Amino acid sequence: MNLRQLRYVVATADHGTMTAAAQALFVAQPALSRAIRELERELGVELFARAGRGVVLTDSGEQIVRYARDALQAVDAIETFSAAPAGGRPGELRVASTSTLEPELTARLLPEFAREQPATRIRVVRCDGRESVGAAVRDGRADLALTDLPVPGDLAAHPLEQREIVLISPPGLNLREPVPLSALEGLRLVMPARGSARRTELDGVLSRIGVTPVPAVESNERGSWLAWVRAGVGSLLWYRNQVEAVDGLAVRSFMPPITTTIGLVHVRRPLPPVARDFLAFAKSRS
After folding, report:
1. Which of 100, 180, 228, 260 is the most exposed place for a label (fewest CB within 10 A)?
2. Number of domains present in the structure of the chain
3. What is the pTM of this model?
4. Of 123, 154, 125, which is closest to residue 138 (Cα–Cα)?
5. At residue 165, what are phi and psi to the nearest 5 degrees?
């Protein structure tokens, strides 16, 4: 028996299906089902019974889930206690982030927080995308995560700011200003490589708008993106607050504006004191 199995059982009880529980925990459904079956064999009882397309707890399952909740709460309390040395705040703050949002942490929030709490060790947990950011806080590798919102309901979310996405275009490109969203249909764009975290985020934005641009360049060499725009290869979608050194290029807003919300997220359990401090600090700066 292990904590992972107990978390899987509790999540299945909460969500009513193993598929929904696996999605909420960002694990493969066969792996979750296999872990629960192994626990049932070890305990010698059946925890769930079929009910339509879902599952319900058996009498034994209800008892086990009650014990599992108590055990997980106790583990969370111990982890919180152990993070706080006597007479002071915990010594380490771990914040997960994608490479796209990491500048938000390393250029502003974390340095300012470090000046207020110089004894705190700060570690950034780098992740590939929104799903891996969520996994980092779920499996305990990070206390908090900076990510685009919304996130699955098993995570507590604290919005910090809205960020505007603008169009950076070569000089001479004839577009109305502000740019109608329909102008993105068929527009040649410099885009991150397929499969990258930034490309996944961008594809999600474009899908929400309902437009399909033409990838002129697909590359993760962020330092070259503006050079390709200057060369007239295509335009670039980027965050206004991260736009710099765009002399000679046109920076245009959209109508209606394209915005995303970023925030700090964490699992729904007590945070270590230093993580609570950082969360309050970040909110005060938003």
Report:
1. 180
2. 3
3. 0.60
4. 154
5. -95, 125
